[in-house]
TrEMBL record:
Subcellular location per the Swiss-Prot or TrEMBL entry: Membrane
Protein name: Major facilitator superfamily domain-containing protein
Native species: Absidia repens
Main location: membrane
Region described as Disordered: spans on this chain: 1-32
InterPro entries assigned: MFS, MFS_dom, MFS_trans_sf
Length: 500
C-alpha cells in the first residue's frame, strides 16, 4: 500500500506507539499490568490527569476563543465606529472577513496536527490570536481592521478541530461525549461573560490613558488568550504514544483502552485510504448537513437580543438577558454530553435534541401568530438550548466513526466544522433577515423544516452504519505490511461503535 514517506522528525516517538500496538495485538492481558484492580487504579489516575491538564485548559482556551471571536458587537457599542469612521457595510465586512481564513484553513491545519506536537501547535496558535486581538487596539481605519480580522480567522482556525481531535485521541467512548461537551461549553459561557466584561471596561477604563473602551476591550481579551496559552506549553499532552509525562504503566493503559475500542493511535500519513474513507461514502456529506442544520437551529438564540429590543425593551436589558441564557445553555450542553456517554447510541440523543427543538419552534410559530407573550417567549428560547448540545455529540460521533484511521478522523472533524459553519452564515442572512424582527417567521419555519430533515438523515445514516455500508477502514504506516491482511480487516471502530 502506498503512503507518504516517514518523517523522521516525529515518527520516532510515534513508532513507540506502533511497537506497543504490535506487541499487544493478540494478547488479552496488558504487557506489564497484570492485576485488574491495579489497572483500574492506573486508568483513573490517567483520566484524572487528562481532565486536569487537557480538559480544563481546553475549556478555558475555548472560553478565550469565544471572547476574541465574538467581541466585535461589544467593540461596536464602545465607540469603535466613531473612532474608525466605520460605515454599516464596513463593519459587516469586518465581521465577515474573519470567516475566510477560519473556514479555509481548518482542513489543512488538522492535517498538520497529525504530524506535529499538539502541545506546541495549539498553545502557539492561541498565543498568536491573542496577540492579533491586542494589535487590533492599534488600528487607525477599517483597512487595518480588515487585515487583522483576516489574521484572527487564520490564527483561530486550527483550535476547535485540533482540540476535538486531541480529545478523541485520549478518551474512550464512555468519556468522550462529556469531555467534548465541557470543551464546547467554554464558548457558550464566554457569551454570558462577554457583555459583563465589556460593560465593566466601558464604565471603568473608557478614556483611561487616552484610550477608548473598545481599545481596552481588545487589549484585555487578547491578553486573556495569551495568558492561557502560556500554561498550555507546559501542561498539554501530545498523543498517547509520545507524551513525556505519560509513560510506563500509564502509557500502556492509555494505549490499551483505546485499542480495545478499535481506535488507531499511530500516524500513517495521508494516502488513498484516507480519501477513500472520506469521499468514497456519503457519510461525511451527511455529517456536514446535520451540523449545518444544527447551526441554523441556533437562530432564535442569536436573534434573542434583537427580538427583545424590537419588542420595546432597552438595549442594555436585552444584552444583559444574554448572560443567564448562555450560562443555562452551557449547563444543558454538559448534561447532554454526559447522557450521550451513558445512555445508548449517540444518534438518538441528536434525534431527541432535534425533535425537542422542533416542538418549541412550532410553539414559536403557532401561538398567537408568532406574537408570543414575553414570559412564553423566554420559556421557548430557553427550551431551544438543547439544539446547542447537538454540536459536541455530533463531533463525538464523527470522532468515533472515523477512529480507525487518525488522518481520516482529523480531516473529517475539520471538514464537518468548517463547511458546516460556512453554509449557515450565508443561509441565515436570508432566513433570519433582521427586518423581519421580532417575529422572524421565515427563519422559524425554515428551521422547522430543516430539523425534520436532520432527524430523517440521522436515522438513515445510523441504519446504513448498522448494516455496514461503506464503513471506513484503517490505513497502516508499516511499509512491509501485507495488503491482504488490510483487506481482510474490517473497520474495528465501526464494529465497536455500532454493536450496542
Amino acid at each position: 500500500m502506498s503512503s507518504v514517506p516517514h518523517d523522521k522528525r516525529e515518527i520516532q516517538d510515534q513508532d513507540l506507539d506502533h511497537d506497543f500496538t504490535n506487541e499487544y495485538a493478540g494478547s488479552p492481558e496488558p504487557v506489564t499490568v497484570e492485576d485488574a484492580e491495579n489497572e483500574r487504579a492506573i486508568e483513573k489516575k490517567l483520566v484524572r490527569m487528562l481532565d486536569l491538564r487537557l480538559l480544563i485548559w481546553s475549556f478555558f482556551g475555548y472560553f478565550a476563543n469565544g471572547l476574541d471571536r465574538n467581541n466585535m458587537p461589544n467593540a461596536y457599542t464602545s465607540g469603535m465606529p466613531q473612532d474608525l469612521n466605520l460605515q454599516k457595510d464596513e463593519y459587516n465586512w469586518a465581521v465577515t472577513l474573519f470567516f475566510i481564513g477560519y473556514v479555509i484553513l481548518q482542513i489543512p491545519c488538522n492535517a498538520i496536527i497529525t504530524r506535529v506536537k499538539p502541545s506546541i501547535m495549539l498553545p502557539g496558535i492561541m498565543f498568536l490570536w491573542g496577540a492579533v486581538v491586542c494589535f487590533m487596539a492599534l488600528v487607525k481605519d477599517y483597512r487595518g481592521l480588515y487585515a487583522l480580522r483576516v489574521c484572527l480567522g487564520i490564527s483561530e482556525a486550527a483550535f476547535y478541530p485540533g482540540i476535538v481531535y486531541l480529545l478523541g485521541s485520549w478518551y474512550t467512548k464512555e468519556e468522550l461525549g462529556t469531555r467534548t461537551a465541557v470543551f464546547v461549553a467554554g464558548s457558550q459561557i464566554s457569551g454570558a461573560f462577554s457583555g459583563l466584561i465589556s460593560g465593566a471596561i466601558s464604565q471603568t477604563l473608557d478614556g483611561h490613558n487616552g484610550m477608548r473602551g473598545w481599545k481596552w476591550l481588545f487589549i484585555i481579551e487578547g491578553l486573556i488568550a495569551v495568558f492561557i496559552s502560556i500554561f498550555g506549553f507546559f501542561i498539554l499532552p501530545d498523543l498517547p504514544g509520545n507524551t513525556k509525562f505519560v509513560d510506563g504503566e500509564l502509557r500502556e493503559v492509555a494505549l490499551k483502552r483505546l485499542h480495545r475500542q478499535g481506535k488507531k493511535t499511530a500516524v500513517s500519513g495521508l494516502n488513498w485510504v484516507t480519501f477513500r474513507n472520506l469521499l468514497g461514502s456519503p457519510y461525511i456529506l451527511i455529517y456536514i448537513i446535520i451540523f449545518s442544520i444544527m447551526q441554523m437551529g441556533m437562530g432564535i438564540l442569536q436573534q434573542f437580543p434583537i427580538i427583545l429590543n424590537k419588542m420595546g425593551y432597552e438595549t442594555s436589558f436585552a444584552n444583559y438577558m444574554q448572560a443567564p441564557l448562555w450560562l443555562f445553555a452551557g449547563v444543558v450542553i454538559i448534561c447532554q454530553g454526559f447522557l450521550s456517554d451513558h445512555k445508548g447510541p449517540r444518534v438518538w440523543h441528536i434525534v431527541a435534541g432535534g425533535l425537542w427543538t422542533l416542538i418549541w419552534y412550532i410553539v414559536l410559530v403557532a401561538v398567537n401568530g408568532g406574537h408570543l407573550p414575553v414570559p412564553l417567549l423566554f420559556v421557548c428560547v430557553y427550551m431551544v438550548t438543547p439544539v446547542l448540545g447537538i454540536s459536541p455529540i455530533m463531533m463525538t460521533w464523527v470522532n468515533e466513526f472515523y477512529a480507525s484511521d487518525m488522518e481520516t478522523r482529523a480531516l473529517a472533524i475539520a471538514m464537518v466544522n468548517s463547511i458546516g459553519n460556512l453554509a449557515p452564515n450565508f443561509a441565515n442572512v436570508k432566513a433570519w433577515y433582521v427586518m423581519d424582527a421580532p417575529e422572524f417567521r421565515t427563519g422559524k419555519i425554515v428551521t422547522m423544516i430543516l430539523l425534520v430533515v436532520m432527524v430523517i438523515l440521522c436515522v438513515t445514516m445510523y441504519a446504513m452504519q448498522r448494516m455496514g455500508v461503506l464503513l471506513p477502514k484503517p490505513a497502516h504506516k508499516i511499509e512491509n505490511e501485507n495488503l491482504e491482511d488490510e483487506k481482510a480487516d474490517p473497520s474495528l471502530v465501526s464494529r465497536e461503535v455500532f454493536k450496542n
